[in-house]
Amino acid sequence: MSRRDFVRNSLASGVVSVLAPVLRWKNLAATKQSKETGPATHILALDRDWLFGGRLDPSVRSVDLDERTFSPITLPHCVAKLSWENWDPAAWQGLWIYRRHFSLPPELKSLRVFLKFDGVMVGTAPMINGQELPRHLGGYLPFEYELSKWLRDENTLNVAVDSRWSNVPPQGSPSGAKRLDYLEAGGIYRSACLKAVPQIFIRDAFVKPVQALDPSRRIEILCTLDAAIVPAKSVQIEAQLQDGSRVISKATETVHLDKPGDSSVTITLPNLGNIALWDVDSPHLYSVLVRLLVEGKPVHDYHVRTGLRDARFELEGFFLNGRRLQLFGLNRHEIYPYVGGAMPPRVMRRDAEMLRRELNCNIVRCSHYPQSEAFLNACDELGLMVWEEIPGWGYLGDEAWKEFLVRDVGEMILRDRNHPAIVIWGVRANESANDVPLYRRTTALAKSLDDSRPDSGSMTSASRKDWQENWQEDVFAFDDYHSESDGSVGIEDPVPSVPYMLAEAVGQFNYAAAKGFAIKYRRAGDVSLQQVQAVRHAQAHSRVGANPRICGVIAWCAFDYASLINSYNTVKTAGIADIFRIPKLGASFYQAQCDPKLHPIIQPSFYWDFGPHTPRGPGKQATIFSNCERLDLFIAAQRHATLYPDAAGFPHLKHPPFFADLDLDGSARPELRIDGYVGDRLLLSRSFSSDVSQDQFLLSMDDTALYADGIDATRLVFKVADKFGAERAFADGEVEFELTGPGVIVGDNPFSLVDSGGVGGVWVKTLPDKVGLIRLIVKHSTLGARHVEITARATQK
Predict the structure, then answer these.
(1) How confident is the model at residue 93 (pLDDT cuts 50, 70, 90)?
(2) Model confidence over 328-363: pLDDT tens digits?
(3) Alpha helices in 499-593 (DSSP H)
(4) Exposure pattern of 347-385 as b/e (b: 16+ CB <10 Å)?
(5) CATH class of the structural domain 326-385+450-542+550-591
(6) CA–CA separation, 583 vs 757, rounded Å?
(7) What pLDDT, in 10s, does the model give residues 569-617?
(8) Are domains 200-306 and 694-793 of this chain identical in fold?
(9) Residue 292: pLDDT above 90?
């Protein structure tokens, strides 16, 4: 009897245990289930125990390679060893080989087993036990293979990764990597896993809130079932909305399966009552359990986390849960120094925390590709709204290329439509030319998969022309990079009759130039340009706020990133924070836009320095960003000025900037003190030293405890600072690291501070199953040594 016949007969007789046996598997990452919750998908994380064989000779079969030459690695992984600057695409553009061995316990032989990759850059050709699997092309979305019929007790998975320039979005241009404004380092740079499921299982469940603001609010769940067999009996789908252990609503539907393959069923959860809504300030999340039952016995569970909210782009602006909310955000590239996109979930989450809690954004644009699920999960939890978009940057390829683009729209939405943080889909390749037939297809596909969200795509001045004939989406999003006659940031009037927002603004544009040109807000670059970056961002947000027709602005951009276009040593420095995620002067505006009662802020948009770069100090129009109502400035302990925010010049900001005349003779190296008041109450006082002889070398860690899985990592920031802790402009020297204990450094060792402007960062990564204390001694060439300690603890169960 075949396995399929055995399973079919078992179903007919009511024996369902073979569909979902208890799975005892080493390294199993499945959630514990009680008898009441029933069986769930069994997941074997494949992020550990890989072997990496380096470059692959195309004339050699991967199965014939001697793995004694391979090196042990964990995922995520980058094929090339990179610095934080001076990237060369030739370092990763090639063929590479990975190998993974795994065992198949007897309990799995009745289950269907799928291999899933979350992201591989950019082509993947797997082979399981010598059986070639179809090649996959595309770097930003998950893909999977069913392995069931090729599995044995002991298995070998070979994965050939093709990181060459390919005809798939966002690549494809004959000009190669120099045509794309972000570099894509190759490798298996996201997670991989095996999942074991019954012969009939729930492949997908779209949990869609309907009429969230109405008392009759409900949830509609579109379930997709995948059946390898046709059961003799009907099956049921049961769904529950849960808040912790409390069941808020539940429903059951009967499904009749008459053929193998996919089938769909919709189930509605009504009577939700006075449910808490997901909001930027209170991102309440619920759990939905969808269960497949055969003859009343649980076979398979599918869990979804969701939030109920109503997000609308209207002619009068953006409305969240019925109230108008100005979009206040930044674009984010998921590119890190040393490894490209190959960072673990903890590091991805840290970006979301910084955007929401430190830069006070309420929205982020995932530019210009779908980003990691760890980042999106953090956005759900933090109340950070998301614009997510397909891979692309200004280029449209041939018909095969366009088919990939349409495919990516569907796969992006299928992966991420259960994230309440996502409020809009970007279904156009960023800043691409108008292609009416193509974008009719992408918008129609988006609506067919998710009619609860609007779609959009960034438009330039060229694509904005004749927009009525060429534009297909719901929300008109414009990348506005023009200047006013005085050289400040300009804001175009909205196009009429449709919701309107800015998907980009500010960037590296020089608004003081008559025609504009690319500039570099580089920490080790021109001080006058660094000092004006925050002011430009403040201008953009204030001027957008003046027009209630504009939903808001997502400015360019959060973090510096690797690029060959308008970059310095392949680092594009448009970010308000650098590539290490260390805030630059440009971040001072964002940092101050929060409640002073919760977090008082004083952030000068200048360095207090009288060295060769700024011999007379910050200048006559020195900018200070603060959420205080009044600032008192003292120089050398003498009152210099009392300042009030420039509400007339920036009328639509929560907290406008302060301006001071700080054109001074600093030969005596005076100290600056800034006292911040709300009413008569002193909330905060900050001091700054211009005496470099008292400078110090400082360290800070994002985390002091990590999991010893060989994957987890955290950032170490180091900087030269004045005696009060403020960053010292243009400090140099060399930094060396000495690590002891169960960890490794991801980064340059030694690290030169010359190009990074006196600051820098590396990451510390654990070793598999090695617990204990990681001790890191960090030495500056002239300012001495500091140390930090991190605990590597047993892997989370």
Answers:
(1) very high
(2) 999 999 999 999 999 999 999 999 999 999 999 999
(3) 527-545, 588-591
(4) bbbbbbbbbbebbbbbbbbbbbbbbbbbbbbbbbbbbbb
(5) alpha beta
(6) 12
(7) 999 999 999 999 999 999 999 999 999 999 999 999 999 999 888 899 9
(8) yes
(9) yes
Pick the CATH number of 200-306 from 3.40.50.2300, 1.25.40.10, 3.40.50.2000, 2.60.40.10: 2.60.40.10
Higher confidence at residue 632 or residue 294? 632
Give the three-class secondary structure for 383.
coil
Strand blocks (E) in 74-152: 95-103, 112-117, 123-128, 131-132, 136-137, 143-146
| E strand spans, 270-352 | 286-294, 297-306, 311-314, 317-320, 323-324, 327-332
pLDDT digits (tens, 9 = 90+) for 624-675: 999 999 999 999 999 999 999 999 999 999 999 999 999 999 999 999 999 9
The yes or no reply on domain 3-197 and CATH 3.40.50.2300 is no
Question: H or E segment at 790?
Answer: strand 784-793
Contacts of 572 (CB under 8 A, 6+ apart): 181, 508, 560, 561, 562, 563, 565, 566
Dist. CA 427–CA 171, nearest whole Å = 17
Task: Supply 766's token pair.
Answer: 């654990």
Fold classified for 694-793: Immunoglobulin-like (2.60.40)
Q: What is the pTM of this model?
A: 0.92
Domain residue ranges of the chain, discontinuous segments joined by +: 3-197, 200-306, 326-385+450-542+550-591, 619-684, 694-793
Cβ(207)–Cβ(289) below 8 Å: no
List the beta bridge partners of residue 672: 635, 688
CA nearest neighbour of 426 among 463, 448, 457: 457
What size, in residues, is the chain? 797
Is 359 in a helix, a strand, or coil?
coil
Q: Which residues of 397-415 are buried (b: 16+ CB within 10 A; e: fewer)?
A: beeebbebbbbbbbbbbbb
